[in-house]
Design brief:
Order of helices and strands: EHEHHEEH
Strand order of the largest sheet: 1-2
Strand content: 5-15%
Helix content: 55-70%
Largest sheet: 2 strands, antiparallel
Radius of gyration: 21 Å
């Protein structure tokens, strides 16, 4: 397995970069990705990550991760309220503890009813 991480969402830098990582059991996976994109990547996003991490320092980075956990808990709690209000439910992603998902079944059905009503109007 491999993990792709967007630098703008995970490292507080401008859009444009990504990290690809694989476990110790199959490091050749990252090499395979590198072979698919030779010379196409810019160094700028990596420099941005380096500058950001050096500016934050170990303590700042740790505080950022702690804050993200607190915000996640708040977001999951509030989204669960919204989901319940609209007859939806939160999706459990136990293999991905930083994702929050919600069904859109009832909202989709309501939107489809609106679309059908528009199309049936002469």
């Amino acid at each position: 397995d491999a993990m792709v991480s967007s630098t703008d969402k995970n490292f507080l830098v401008p859009v444009g970069g990504a990290l690809v990582a694989a476990g110790k059991t199959d490091p050749s996976l990252v090499d395979a990705v590198n072979q698919m994109y030779p010379g196409r990547a810019s160094i700028s996003p990596l420099v941005d990550v380096l500058i950001t991490l050096l500016s934050l320092g170990a303590g700042g980075w740790t505080r950022h991760l702690d804050d993200r956990e607190q915000v996640y808990a708040y977001m999951a709690e509030r989204l669960a309220i919204v989901a319940t209000k609209h007859n939806e439910r939160l999706l459990v992603t136990s293999a991905n503890p930083i994702s929050i998902g919600m069904t859109l079944s009832a909202i989709e059905a309501a939107a489809q009813a609106d679309i059908d009503a528009v199309h049936s109007t002469p």
